[in-house]
Amino acid sequence: MDDMAKGKSCGICHNGKDAFASNGDCDKCHKGMKPGKITFKTSAGEAAFSHDFHTQAYKCLDCHTKIFPFKSGTLKATMAQMEEGRSCGACHNKGKDAFSVQDDCGKCHTM
């Protein structure tokens, strides 16, 4: 997506002037794309992330690539990072936007 925003790849034409802009509505080009549930292995048990839930309220670009890279296996988030407002903690921030990463471990982790 960064390349597209810089006018490379599809972004050469899809810049909002010559053709519709690549604005985070991934399904416009990637028909039927349904990212599923992602499971992270952590020292506190597996942690689950539901794209189904999150994509009801947000566009792909709300999180990718501002908070999370698109490439699988590139994120190694720690609780310390989340508590500093990075990765999941960007929204799960002491209840301001969503439940805090410190509230209830069982909301994300299976132990």
Structure write-up:
With 111 residues, the chain is an alpha+beta fold. Helices cover 15% and strands 13% of the residues. It has 4 helices and 3 strands; from the N terminus they run H-E-E-H-H-H-E. The chain has a 3-stranded antiparallel β-sheet with strand order 1-2-3. It is elongated and about 50 Å long. The N and C termini lie far apart (35 Å).
Any key phrases for this structure?
111 residues, alpha+beta, three-stranded antiparallel beta sheet, 4 helices, 15% helix
Summed up:
This protein has helices at residues 2-5, 51-54, 60-63, 79-83; strands spanning 37-42, 45-50, 109-110.
- H-E order: HEEHHHE
Share of helix, binned: 10-25%
CATH topology of the domain at 34-110: Cytochrome C3
Shape: elongated
Supply Rg: 16 Å
- Strand order in the sheet with the most strands: 1-2-3
The name of the CATH architecture of the domain at 34-110 is Alpha-Beta Complex
Low-confidence stretches: none
Mean pLDDT equals: 80
Strand content: 5-15%
Task: Let me know the CATH homologous superfamily of the domain at 34-110.
Answer: Cytochrome C3
What characterizes the major β-sheet?
A: 3 strands, antiparallel
N-end to C-end Cα span: 35 Å
Oligomeric organization of the protein chains: single chain
Number of helices: 4
Structural class: alpha+beta
The level 1 CATH classification of the domain at 34-110 is Alpha Beta
